[in-house]
Amino acid sequence: MLSFEVPTRETVSDNNKVIFDKFINQFGFMPNLIAMFAYSETALADYLAIQSRKGTLTIKEKEVVYLVVSEINDCKYCVPGHALYAKNLGFSEEQIIQIRKGDIPFDDRLNALAHFVKDITLNKGRPREASVEAFFKAGYNEANLVDVIIAIGDKVITNYLHNITQVSIEWPAVRAISQ
Predict the structure, then answer these.
(1) Is the pLDDT of residue 1 over 90?
(2) DSSP sequence for the chain
(3) Contact predicate 36/6, CB 8 Å
């Protein structure tokens, strides 16, 4: 298997150095997977723009999307990273496992979202009509639909990048689950 080196501040372009500095100042470090975008002159800024865009989803809804997609794509980097963030948002360990499975009995609205996201991801963008109907019945609208698809795309990008590069993971490990 190929081995990929994680770019450092010293090895990236001047434009990416500025982004590294902002990231390190805000979070205290540069996550390995995010640093991988700096191999490209523009990808790091492009990805962070997608990541930080304003949308109609709440932070918790975005984390549901991220955890469901990352679990389906078996991303060993994104699942523990988002599990840690979800815990910081107030989800319990058991709730995080339920979210990762795409079955959320503790919240009907998030459950409809998780089922919808799982269906979209498993069926390559072709969810069953019942999933779409349940999503809208739960109170989501067309703007939410667009934002869910963008959030799925966001996670597919990082999931695929890690699944190919296998850069080291900074987050505490999470236990494997069965779907």
Answers:
(1) no
(2) ----PPP-GGGS-HHHHHHHHHHHHHHSS--HHHHHGGGSTTHHHHHHHHHH---SS-HHHHHHHHHHHHHHTT-TTHHHHHHHHHHHTT--HHHHHHHHHT--TT-HHHHHHHHHHHHHHHTTT---HHHHHHHHHTT--HHHHHHHHHHHHHHHHHHHHHHHH-----SPP------
(3) yes
**DSSP 8-state class, residue 179:** -
54 touches 179 (CB < 8 A): no
Quick: pLDDT tens for 70-97: 999 999 999 999 999 999 999 999 999 9
Q: Is the CB of residue 90 less than 8 Å from the CB of residue 119?
A: no
Write the pLDDT tens digit of every residue in 166-177.
999 999 999 999
Domains located in the chain, CATH noted: 10-52 (1.20.5), 59-165 (1.20.1290.10)
Instruction: Indicate the pTM of the whole model.
Output: 0.96
